[in-house]
Write a structure and sequence with these properties.
The protein has 341 residues and is an alpha/beta fold. It has helices at 9-19, 39-47, 53-62, 70-76, 90-102, 105-115, 145-149, 170-178, 189-198, 202-208, 231-242, 258-266, 312-323, 327-336; strands at 2-7, 26-31, 121-124, 132-136, 141-143, 157-162, 181-184, 212-216, 248-252, 283-287.
Amino acid sequence: MNIVVIGGGTGSTVVLEGLKKYRELHLSVIVGMMDDGGSNAVVRDEFGLLPLSDVRKSILALSEDNESNYLRKLLTYRYSGCDNLSGHTLGNLLMVAMSDILGSEIEAIDTLSQMFGVRGSVMPVTLDDVRLVAEYDDGTKIVGEHYIDEPEKDINIVKFYLNGKAQAFPRAIQAIKDADYVILGPGDLYTTLLPNLLVDGVGKAIKKSHAKVIYISNLMTKIGQTRHKSVKDIINIIEGYVGRKLDYVLLNNGRIPKEAFQRYVEDGENLIKDDVDESGGRMIIRKDLVANDDIKQEKGDTLKRSFVRHDSQKVGKALSRIFTKNPLGRFFRNIFGQYAD
């Protein structure tokens, strides 16, 4: 069974880590290439390469686990306290070096995937160097994923596009065509999920695909993106870009850790209002999906991160139940389920 995850960042990592133990699944992740903050800004400006952080995270998420876990720790190690390297992860620098050695970012991704025993495929959504552009209801315009991701005030996006033409990476389109399920989210609406749908060919491929489309909702609102928006509002926005209805919507009904939740409330955020039912023809599934452990900021990381996240095992289990509801899914599960980790 072919599963395609579209997005990037921590959200996609959670989904991939949750699904990789199910050996009957062939996993592909299509990663956004518009990140221009932190280490990625240096990678783009000084090395002329596309952003590598989300690619690195996806490779790690799909890599074979080892007892010592030292390789994972090395690739996620983030430098701090030194002017030239602060904010960079060793994994990003390794990918820069591999791209230079092989003369191609694609070859670097494929080679590192082989080195780390990736179970599945990791691919960029595009190889074109483009930036995100957001126009707001107060008349302002912001260029750049990093600035859109962390606006200085609460404003609403009314127009969203790329600053140039971006053609989809051919292998990404083929993966969508071959997919049995396409998973969107979790992830920031305007800086993680929708940027992939802006790339020429991606939305059309999803619309024409025979695959069932699953959307995993975020847990909390975010300033400049989903604050004051409900689940129904967000679904309508996504469906507008894809051009078809979502087949499944996966929502959390678990309890958010109190201390972490309070941090969001203090920043003006809250739970995304659950106002959907199955009258729209979508299957709405509510499960406890939230991670119960407190997420801490990595040493040397200067970007603002989410401290309430999905639990990979809970998400993987919920998705697996969706896959096995259809006859083909049950067949693969019965044949290969014994090989699950």
